[in-house]
């Protein structure tokens, strides 16, 4: 069956151009007869265009469509990562992980049709607010912790934690997106690929010692610091300088007063140089983190049941309201055809 992506009448010119450039006519074997209508461009990166799309028969149902240029994937040898991203997201079924419904491909792009999170990136909210108080940060970190708990139990490590990859859904719950670096390594196994975002990379990754799910606990400590302070603890003018400060360790970092004592102590327990000493890595696993003093009084059950009221309730007016996202200059390049066939199973 063919799903044609057509441009809605109300759409701004930018979108028309992007859609024309990506020449999106997607062939799928979906059961439901749907016409998907491209509504608004959320993000345009060199490689990726994420747009929201809408079911023509039920306009209240919208999705995010991640479009990746195949030529770029091949040039940067990301084929395996893209397949892994698809497999892991398709398999994942957690309220703290963005759902991937379906994937498509054509001559120029591969596409991922996902649940849309209209509350925007945590990164944008943090930039606008400067920093979060303990209550807000605790809720965000708790959502990530539940996502990690789910993934780690399946032998999957995430490896790309940062505020850009955390989205708020319309209710204000935090969800992980972007599984481009996630990997199923299995229990008790290690992996060696160098990946991640410099400020969030664990020392054992820099030193190429092999890493496992403990690298995610490290990044959780970095995220806590960034949410409470506004910027991450380790940073330099270029990645090499950042890696140098990471290797000096968390004890060389000055904690500002606005980071409370319990938060400070938890960050230090997560950001131990030795991966085996990090909180969460012991025999009780993640529950050691849940029981930490910083989380005292936190309603874990309410979080799991999704009955807890989130600290940030985003303003989302309609199912196509993308106003919580920044707009980026559009990608004017017409993607080249890529016909080598690596994506035959995508
Ligand atoms: N399901 C989604 N709902 C809304 N926006 C999304 C969704 N997935 C991705 N985005 C937006 O697109 C951006 C880039 O997507 P991401 O999967 O992180 O790709 P990249 O590998 O380029 O970082 C995200 O940071 C977010 O702003
Ligand atoms: Mg991302």
Automatic annotation (TrEMBL):
Asked if the keyword Transferase belongs to this entry, the reply reads yes
Domain AGC-kinase C-terminal per the UniProt entry, residue ranges: 296-346
Q: Extract the CDD domains matched here.
A: STKc_cGK
Give the enzyme's EC designation: 2.7.11.12
Task: Name the chemical reaction catalysed here.
Answer: L-threonyl-[protein] + ATP = O-phospho-L-threonyl-[protein] + ADP + H(+); L-seryl-[protein] + ATP = O-phospho-L-seryl-[protein] + ADP + H(+)
Among Gene3D superfamilies, the record links this protein to: Phosphorylase Kinase, domain 1, Transferase(Phosphotransferase) domain 1
For this chain, one GO molecular function annotation is: ATP binding
EC class (word): transferase
Which of UniProt's keywords are assigned here? Answer: ATP-binding, cGMP, cGMP-binding, Kinase, Membrane, Nucleotide-binding, Serine/threonine-protein kinase, Transferase, Transmembrane, Transmembrane helix
PROSITE patterns membership: AGC_KINASE_CTER, PROTEIN_KINASE_DOM, PROTEIN_KINASE_ST
Q: What range(s) does the Protein kinase domain occupy?
A: 13-295
User: What residue ranges are annotated as transmembrane?
Assistant: 30-53
Family that this chain belongs to: Belongs to the protein kinase superfamily. AGC Ser/Thr protein kinase family. cGMP subfamily.
What protein name does the entry list?
Answer: cGMP-dependent protein kinase
Q: What is this organism's lineage?
A: Eukaryota, Metazoa, Spiralia, Lophotrochozoa, Mollusca
């Amino acid at each position: 069956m063919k799903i044609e992506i057509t441009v809605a009448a109300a759409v701004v010119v930018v979108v028309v151009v992007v859609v024309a450039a990506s020449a999106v006519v997607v062939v799928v074997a979906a059961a439901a007869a749907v016409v998907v209508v491209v509504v608004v461009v959320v993000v345009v990166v060199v490689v990726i265009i994420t747009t929201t799309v809408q079911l023509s028969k039920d306009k209240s149902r919208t999705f995010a469509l991640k479009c990746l240029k195949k030529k770029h994937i091949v040039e940067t040898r990301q084929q395996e990562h893209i397949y892994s991203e698809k497999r892991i997201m398709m398999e994942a079924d957690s309220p703290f992980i963005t759902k991937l419904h379906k994937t498509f491909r054509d001559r120029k792009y591969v596409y991922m049709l996902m649940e849309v999170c209209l509350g925007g990136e945590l990164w944008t909210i943090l930039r606008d607010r400067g920093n979060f108080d303990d209550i807000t940060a605790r809720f965000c970190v708790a959502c990530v912790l539940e996502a990690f708990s789910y993934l780690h139990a399946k032998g999957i490590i995430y490896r790309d934690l940062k505020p850009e990859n955390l989205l708020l859904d319309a209710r204000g719950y935090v969800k992980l997106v972007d599984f481009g670096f996630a990997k199923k390594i299995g229990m008790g196994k290690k992996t060696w690929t160098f990946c991640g975002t410099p400020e969030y990379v664990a020392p054992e990754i820099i030193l190429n010692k092999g890493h496992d799910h403990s690298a995610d606990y490290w990044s959780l400590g970095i995220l806590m610091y960034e949410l409470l302070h506004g910027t991450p603890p380790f940073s330099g003018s270029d990645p090499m300088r950042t890696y140098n400060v990471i290797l000096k360790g968390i004890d060389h970092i000055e904690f500002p007063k606005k980071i409370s004592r319990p938060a400070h102590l938890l960050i230090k327990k997560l950001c131990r140089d030795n991966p085996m000493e990090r909180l969460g890595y012991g025999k009780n696993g993640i529950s050691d983190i849940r029981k930490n003093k910083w989380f005292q009084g936190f309603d874990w059950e309410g979080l799991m049941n999704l009955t807890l009221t989130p600290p940030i309730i985003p303003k989302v007016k309609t199912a196509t309201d993308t106003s919580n996202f920044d707009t980026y200059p559009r990608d004017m390049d017409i993607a080249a055809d890529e016909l080598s066939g690596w994506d035959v199973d995508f």
